[in-house]
Amino acid sequence: MQITLETRNYSEIETEALVSYLFEESDPVQGQLDEIDRGAGGLLRKLVKGGEVSGKMLEFTLIHSPQGLKAARLLLVGAGKREQFNGAVVRKVTGAALRYLKARSVKKFSILALEKDRTEEFAQTVAEAAIIANFESDKYKTDKKNDKSIDTVFLVGYSDAGKSAGEKGLATGRTIGEAQNFTRDLVNEPANKLTPKILAEKAAAMGREADLAVEILDEQKIADLKMGALLSVAQGGPEPPRVMVLTYVPANVKPDLPVIGLIGKAVTFDTGGISIKPADGMEKMKYDMAGGGAMLGVMRAIASLKPNVKVICVIPSTENMVGGKAQKPGDIQTAMSGKTIEVLNTDAEGRLILADGITFAKQLGATHLIDAATLTGAIVVALSNVNAGVFGSDQAFTDRLLASSKAAGEKMWQMPIDDDYREFIKGSVGDIQNIGSGKGGGAITGAMFIKEFTGDTPWIHLDIAGTAWNDDQKPWMAKGATGTAVRTLIHMLMSY
Ligand code: BES
Ligand code: MN
Ligand code: ZN
Q1: How far apart are CA 23 and CA 5, in angstroms?
Q2: SS3 369
Q3: What is d(CA 70, CA 357) in angstroms, rounded to the nearest whole number?
Q4: Measuring from atom 22 of ligand 1, which residue has the nearest CA?
Q5: How many CA atoms lie within 13 A of 190 on its CB side?
Q6: Alpha-carbon span 421 to 395, nearest angstrom
Q7: Which of 61, 175, 393, 411 shows its CA 20 to 30 Å from the CA of 445?
Q8: Would you state the CATH architecture of domain 2-142+149-158?
Q9: pTM above 0.85?
Q10: Bridge partners, residue 215, by sequence
Q11: Does 434 contact ligand 1 (Cβ within 6 A)?
């Protein structure tokens, strides 16, 4: 899909559809829409009076052959209340408009930037939203919905003076949107098409192409490093585990900046192991590698956006299976850090593999850690599929992430991890146990377990179990993998 700036006036443009948003207020026909209304003989205000157009969030009004315009269609999209307008609204409106038009076989359309929108940031947001909205989860359909994909979006309203800022925004937005779709593609893959080995091959191919340093650790190397927690999960099935390490080094490393370690859970299928999951809905456990998938999308984007910080990405990957060699509840495992773990529930496997991923990232020189994982069903109970859970051991570091989540339009909510929760995972036989002792707070328990391996290193944990997957499509996004956390983490890395 092409996304380009169009500096001609909207009235000059022959386009399949001209899209404009409008606000829910007493007179939604403002600014350029007022001009369009006059050209169209008062049609817009007539529609407002008749109650057909109100500006309510995601209200669509499609007008064919609008008078006074060369556009074949005018699409009005409600953007809700003016006071609540922000980047998240731009994303919804742009994405939903694209999907609305593509369902009607439109191939090229133009979006009108209103006066105050003509910034680099707006162009970036529109590009991200359009690229994300154009993606379909239909790779394995022989009858492809995507045959209807949009091939060109023109952003209208930028003058010659604002053109370079607009173009810069479009380029950044494209990189970020494509990175998010790269993640969604990986996360949508079924487990027979994406084993740890295949994921590692894809990570290596991406890293090579993006010019990142890549190292793939195989089962031998993983054993040499004594990653006992990861190996304990992997022993349950025949597919060997992998650990992917991708490194981005900025051109001029500034000594006072942190080295960020990104650790992503990549369980390519989670049966639960001997503590097996119910059959109903188990097929969704192919998305249990969404944390690792998100980190790969982030690495792909920063390779071209080039932030000032060094980033070390560590992705432990395995299946969680129920073979004859599978670990059993009560087994004691020794993590890479040397801590002993009593595995009381083999379905709490994500925290096990992250333990070794975090130890390894620290050993490689990370001074700050961020992990992302589809870790607990409990975070879905707490926050549903609206907010990702954020846990942090260093408030200044966590605040930076929360600010980035707002800026990137991905909802996240901070959860507590005070020391009072420490006793939940105190071991009776080993140093720690991998589930809490029946006191609720399942998402916090998972975070507390991971925290044990971070030591004094500032650390953030993102529990994305609720936000990584859409069961149903949204007006602005296809169903399936969402690519959650990709934009927030890119924004945060770029903020240094
Ligand atoms: N991968 C699951 C968590 C999950 C649940 C992800 C729902 C996506 C949607 C994780 O490995 C798991 O099984 N967690 C257990 C932990 C429990 C045994 C302490 C859970 O949440 O039930
Ligand atoms: Mn599990
Ligand atoms: Zn899992």
Answers
A1: 24
A2: strand
A3: 57
A4: 377
A5: 6
A6: 18
A7: 411
A8: 3-Layer(aba) Sandwich (3.40)
A9: yes
A10: 245
A11: no
Placement of tokens 């894809």 in the chain: 202
- 364 by DSSP, 3-state: which? coil
Q: Are 445 and 379 in contact (CB under 8 A)?
A: no
- CA 272 to ligand 1: nearest atom: 13
Ligand 1 atom, smallest distance to 350 CA: 11
Place of tokens 């149903």: 472
Task: Say what the pLDDT of residue 145 is.
Answer: 63
Q: Is the CB of 393 under 6 A from ligand 1?
A: no
To the nearest 10 degrees (0 to 180), the angle between helices 290-305 and 196-210 is: 10
Question: What's the CA gap between 164 and 364, in Å, rounded?
Answer: 40
Per 3-state DSSP, the chain is made up of helix, strand and coil in percentages (nearest 5) of: 40, 20, 40
Return the pLDDT at 147. 74
Average pLDDT over residues 134-140: 94
Contact 219, 234 (CB under 8 A): yes
Burial code (b: 16+ CB inside 10 Å, e: under 16) for 303-342 equals bebebebbbbbbbbbbbbbbeeebbeeebbbbbbbebebb
Do the first three CATH levels of 2-142+149-158 and 177-494 match, i.e. the same topology?
A: no
Measured in angstroms, how far is the CA atom of residue 235 from the centroid of ligand 1?
A: 19
As a whole number, the mean pLDDT across the chain is: 97
- Both tokens of 400, joined, read 């930076």
Fold classified for 177-494: Aminopeptidase (3.40.630)
421-to-100, 109, 287, 437, 439 alpha-carbon distances in Å: 47, 53, 28, 11, 10
| Positions of E strands within 265-307 | 266-270
Domains of the chain, residue spans:
2-142+149-158, 177-494
- Give the Cα separation of 69 and 203 in Å (integer): 48
Residue whose tokens read 């650990």: 243
Question: 278, 329 in Cβ contact below 8 A?
Answer: no
Any idea which residue has 């529990």 for tokens?
463
Q: Residue 165: how many CB atoms within 10 A of its CB?
A: 18
What's the pLDDT tens digit per position in 301-326? Answer: 999 999 999 999 999 999 999 999 99
Instruction: State which residues have CB under 5 angstroms from ligand 2, the bound ion.
Output: 270, 347, 349
Residue 249: strand, helix, or coil:
coil
Nearest alpha-carbon partner for 190 in 351, 44, 319, 341:
319
Which of 376, 435, 464 is the pocket-test mutation for ligand 1 (most atoms within 8 Å of CB)? Answer: 376
Determine the atom of ligand 1 nearest the C-alpha atom of 349.
11
Count CB neighbours of 62 within 10 A. 14
Mutation choice for ligand 1 from 345, 349, 375, CB with most ligand atoms inside 8 A? 375
In this predicted model, what pLDDT tens digit does every residue of 255-272 receive, in sequence order?
Answer: 899 999 999 999 999 999
